[in-house]
Please model this.
Amino acid sequence: MTTAFVLGGGGVLGAVEVGMLRALFEREIRPDLVLGTSIGAFNGALVASQPEPEVIGRLTELWASVSNAREAGYGDTPLRTVRRAMQSGTHLWSAEPLRQRLEEELGESTFEELPVTFQVCAASIERSAEHWFSTGRVVDAVVASAAVPGLLPPAKVGDEHYLDGGIVNSVPLGRAVELGATRVFVLQVGRFDRPLKPPRRPWEVARVSFEIARRHRFVRELAELPDGVECHVLPARGTSARDDTFLGTRDFASVQERIEATYDASRDYLAEQLSDGGRA
Model:
């Protein structure tokens, strides 16, 4: 059996993935393969660097230590945000706080040095294509995968520029199957549980359009899973439609509550769904 953890994107909502991971490790479920997109790449990088229960304390402390977007590595002071937007014309925030935070956790680690297979999805601008990082420096790949359009600048790795992997593959279930996973645990942030509504204001059009693009591939890949692949979509708790707005992306006030609520839901789900204790 090859077990994959698939960690999807979702900005601040990525905190719920910590609760899911805690529930998985408590049942002694370990990954052979970790795939991540956007904030899922951030969480996944730490798991791939330390695929054991101790990583939960590391992740929990990391998420609990931030009270705003800037401390999390996303965002900046209001004045610098406005100045940067006027100067660049393409993004509001610098990627340097995110890069620095990742380097504090991962240093110069490469994919080849990790104890389990880890891959990160990003969107190549020059090739208009989905790109999977599986070699080289982990920090560079995660920054590329988390380069949210309009908020962070495109990330240059080698000769190419990249944007957020959620544009092309928000929850890479199909990739896990391609790589031979026979048991997949999907860690998603709860957006798939909320039906979309038609936009009523001009600025809602882009958000709804992106959500359609984000969701349709995962729903299709879930429906087309081949025989012999066991898939579990873990439940997220504590999220709402407000979290999909710009203000919601900066709200870290409920991080710990979301982690705990999602842990409880995922623990109960695994207890109900898995036989033989669900152990690897």
